[in-house]
Amino acid sequence: MNSTEDILSVQNLTKSFKDFSxxxxxxxxxRGYVMGFIGPxxxxxxxxxxxxxxxxxxxxxxxKVFGLDHQKHALELKERLGFVFDENHFYDDLTIQDMSRIxxxxxxxxxxxxxxxxxxxxxxNPKQKIKQLSKGMKMxxxxxxxxSHQAELLIMDEPTAGLDPLVRYELLEILTNLIQDxxxxxxxxxxxxxxxDKIADYVTFLHKGRVVLSSPKxxxxxxxxxxxxxxxxxxxxxxxxxxxxxTNPYGFEGLxxxxxxxxxxFKEQVVLEKPTLEDVMLYTVRGVSAC
Length: 291
Description:
about 30% helix, alpha/beta, 5-stranded mixed beta sheet, about 290 residues, Alpha-Beta Plaits, Rossmann fold, 6-stranded mixed beta sheet
């Protein structure tokens, strides 16, 4: 890392509702990197994002952005944050040009030339109405807006959901180019973990309001392992090493947190594969099952 500075720090964050609670959520995103924020629906991802963005009030804990308290310095931080959501929050009957003029009035550092450059790069017609844009084009417009006021931290909520593979690829390419500027970071909440396989440096996995893991992506994929083998190889002791395990009358398939902890004699009799982030999430959520 070129810098140990955390652009986003969340410590012991809690928020309780009638039927759900966020419990001591902690993670850190260093400047210049992409963090993937994953978890099944209902895990608390959206609640965490709303707390970071001051749309909800936390019960306890600490959120710092650029080292500043996110509530005490809310107005200052707004200038340095960019938001891209799955849903469109613009006026449908306005043109891109007219909508951008409204948005520009909220930011001291709005850069008209930068915005015009992104419209050109993204093939967006400034005279086109918002309601005429496809979902992918709306996402690109949101991204152009977020990047045209010198945002240093881009917070994205399901930005690639519902997009065709080509548009998803284009957006991921844009983000990859963005973080070549090592002063910028991206916090990317999604359930499409294959996108994070491509661009994430760090991954934070939330399940039932708790952080399951928060680590460099490469460490996760190097340490975890998917194991496949004959059912008779599984002893009760070995079963205890699995985070998630599926068995049937003939064999088993499961996920371990540390493949190096497995006995060598066992590893020689099974198939050991490198997991994807989806494997890590699905096996953790499903746990142990048998058929």
